[in-house]
Design a protein that fits this description.
6-stranded antiparallel sheet; 5-stranded mixed sheet; alpha+beta; binds 6-diazenyl-5-OXO-L-norleucine; 21 strands
Length: 635
Amino acid sequence: MCPTDGAGLRTEVATASKPASHDAPDVSSPIQDYLDGLHRQLADVTSGKVATYIPELAKADPSAFGIAIATVDGRVYEVGATRERFTIQSISKPFVYGIALADHGIERVRQSVGVEPSGDAFNSISLEPGTGRPMNPMINAGAIATTSLVKGDGAAERLARVVSAMSAYAGRALTIDDAVFESERATGHRNRAIGHMLRNYDILTEDPDAALDLYFRQCSVLVDCRDLALMAATLANGGTNPATGKVAVAPEYVGPILSVMTTCGVYDFTGEWVYRVGLPAKSGVGGGIVAVLPGQLGIGVYSPALDERGNSVRGVKACEAISRELGLHFLRPPRASVSTIRARYSLAEVRSKRRWPTAESQLLAEHGGAARVFELQGDLRFATIEPVLHEIVAGTEGLQFAVLDFKRVTHVDLAATQMLSALISRCAARGQQVVLTRVRRGDLLAALDTAMDPRAVRAVSFHPQMDLGLEYCERALLRRHGIGKLAPAVVTLAEHRLCEGAAPEDIAYLETLVGRVAFEPGDDVVRRGDPADAIHLLMRGEVSVTVDLPGGGHKRLSTLSAGMSFGEMALLSGGLRSADVRADTTVECRTVDVAAFSRIERERPALAILLLRNLLRRSTETAVRLTGEVAALEG
Ligand code: DON
């Protein structure tokens, strides 16, 4: 045993960029307090005996006891002898199984090693009658067969691969305890017999001593309790070490590894373990136990006093208590705590940032219910996408557009992708459209491309911003209701909304006062921070009002077309422009500056009032619309 840097009670936060340092300061938390209490409680348990069949292991201190929990975010909580090193022993087996799977693929490995629990002790000679195939990779026979599958040019390279893979799980460079290795090599007659038996059945195709030598060395890798927690957390995290961010094993092998840990990890105690603890696990005669809660955390316990089956007595009790008291049994999964649908509303309630002329606006208010928006969140898998599909399919009469926003979606698994693709096909058959907004490229998009029926492609459209997805629906809805020409491209002063109700002589009077400016597509019409000295009446073309976002890029506040105006603030309070306005097309504006408006107020006060009243009406309409949007978004 190698005592190291003095274990105390501590919690660490390890991040991907900066792996946890062993000298990190103590951070107290309720979880730390819980672990401290559990450690105190179980320290009194003195039953069990250290392993002696490998003579070097007999030197272990039976009172040594550490517990560590590592989360998939890389936080480590630990108490007791968590930095005392000991040999990993059988806990190496699932990790080496991962190497064999990566080297040969699942099918080839299964030809050499089964996946059935033997219900026998770790050193039993449980071979399939006839074939000689070991029952599973967790018993010694299966582990030796697994180890023989590790590829490499010579013993040194194979060993280096084993140690390096385990180091990736632990997040630090692991080493071997040569004394324990020599001790086991000198006394491991039973394993040697198993090796030769495997050679007899051609399960081993090499000299059994080569496989046994590598197996004894993998068992002698030195770890501490914190390493075990991080190794388990790496499996919980889909194969990527949560502290270093490095991939230790490809995600497709994590399921097979955890499966054999679940069914065979603690040998002839496995049924009891699953019943009482309910976490994939592996024990070792060095006194370690790892347990994994997929997607959440890894547990490492060290206490070398073993029960008659070779499992750490305190280790079993600690895992049982943690599982029971923290509610971790994998067959009692929590219900999803938040709904996948974060907000739902229709286009009648929330619109794009394009301002439509009155007729179009009224039509959208009337028919906007045919476009339903679902803002999704969290991980999409069968259970979380099912309610979304149900609402779209069963809950919305007259649905023509289903807008699914992915901004807050964290992951989409294969089943959810296939369900989504089936939804698109179904919508295609019914003449409905699925509008997907803010989907990250290379994530869902790539998977959908392969999953989707090519005939359904016309029923789906992608938009980088939700605003653009909504505008897409608005245009399509207007087209479906016969409004093909979406906005008048040019208006006269008499036709402009600001002048609504003005007498012809007032228009003629205004013609003499208003300025005229023109812009090409892409030109800045107004820059944020410029003095607000004139209201712009848009006579031709379209402009977009935008604000810069702190993280780069910009957000559209509105798109305006001929007949609308912007920069009203100039007439009321002056000050500085609050947003940028850019020409989307060729644009012509008439402008009423502050001096011109003062003149209108003096010379034609009734006209000034009419202009202000028209401005106020538009502002009120905007306020009412925004109030409705806030209510819909909050609801
Ligand atoms: O094969 C052996 O005997 C040891 N090197 C490993 C056994 C072991 O850890 C069993 N697990 N509880």
